[in-house]
Amino acid sequence: MCNNDGAELSLYQVNAGTSIYDMTAAQLADLLQVVQTILDNVLLDGGSQNLWALDYVAAEYERGTLNAFTNLSVQSPAYASQTTLQQLLSSAAYQNQIASAYISTYSDWKGISDTARADLANVIADSVGRGINPRETASVISKCLDVSMSKAKTIAQTEQVGALRQVQGNETDWAADRLGLNTGLMWLSALKPTTRSWHASRHGNVYTTEEVRDFYAENGNRYNCYCSQIPVLINDDGSIFNEGLAEKLKKERKAWKAELE
């Protein structure tokens, strides 16, 4: 009901569920550009050469190299006498691994940013076009960002653990190539309540580096996986140098399975 300057009372009907946005196409484009900038600043801070996530990946490579070096040095005097940790960390092969990991990580992060931008652009443009209430629009945007951050966390975990896994496998191969050692990778599962059964079943078993890479190349096995592998020396009869460790891990695997039953 409206009374305008003493005129007769007038009755107007409005759609309370519709909002009118006073925004031109150019202003909408500018808004979407701001959204892209914010996303890039959060997810891609530092750019392709200094992305914040790369520090974590590089740290895992160094930790994996240290673990591989320690394990092989304990099991093989020949390895310990021929290799130093500093030589491994400064080698061209190691630096190439880091560079490759940087490219992969940045590509994954850029994909998240681009996808989030496209999703948000659709939400904002649709809201403006249909006159959706700003609060409802904000709720949808928040959910979109939650999904994006969830993807970011998954990739962060995958890249970090993947870096650790890759360097363990590479050093296992290099030890075999350089020194002629008979090596393999012993599987260590996290044995969490959420661990997939086909991951846990590998706990304590020894695989070739190729078998490990093939496993992670299929069925999404590399995502949300906290398993790791350590280099081990294999005797001529196929048994591992540290038989006590193999027996211990076998018991852990059985205990985990029993708890779930």
What are the main properties of this structure?
261 residues, mainly alpha, 3-stranded antiparallel β-sheet, 9 helices, 3 strands
Oligomerization category of the chains in this entry:
single chain
State the major sheet.
3 strands, antiparallel
In total, how many beta strands?
Answer: 3
Strand order of the largest sheet: 2-1-3
Q: Tell me, what's the shape?
A: elongated
- CA-to-CA gap between the ends? 69 Å
Spans of 5+ residues with little confidence (pLDDT < 50)? 10-16
Q: How many domains is the backbone divided into? A: 2
The helix-strand sequence is HHHHHHEHEHEH
The Rg value, from CA coordinates, equals 28 Å
How would you describe the overall organization of this protein?
With 261 residues, this protein is mainly alpha-helical. The protein folds into 2 domains: 20-181, no CATH class; 182-261, no CATH class. Helix content is 65%, strand content 5%. It has 9 helices and 3 strands. The chain has helices at residues 25-43, 52-75, 77-82, 85-90, 92-130, 134-179, 197-200, 209-216, 243-260; strands at 183-188, 206-207, 228-233. A 3-stranded antiparallel sheet has the order 2-1-3. Helix 1 runs antiparallel to helix 5 (92-130), helix 2 packs antiparallel against helix 5 (92-130) and helix 5 runs antiparallel to helix 6. Residues 10-16 have low confidence and may be disordered.
Topology:
Elements: H1 25-43, H2 52-75, H3 77-82, H4 85-90, H5 92-130, H6 134-179, E1 183-188, H7 197-200, E2 206-207, H8 209-216, E3 228-233, H9 243-260
Antiparallel strand pairs: 1-2, 1-3
Helix pairs in contact: 1-5, 2-5, 2-6, 5-6
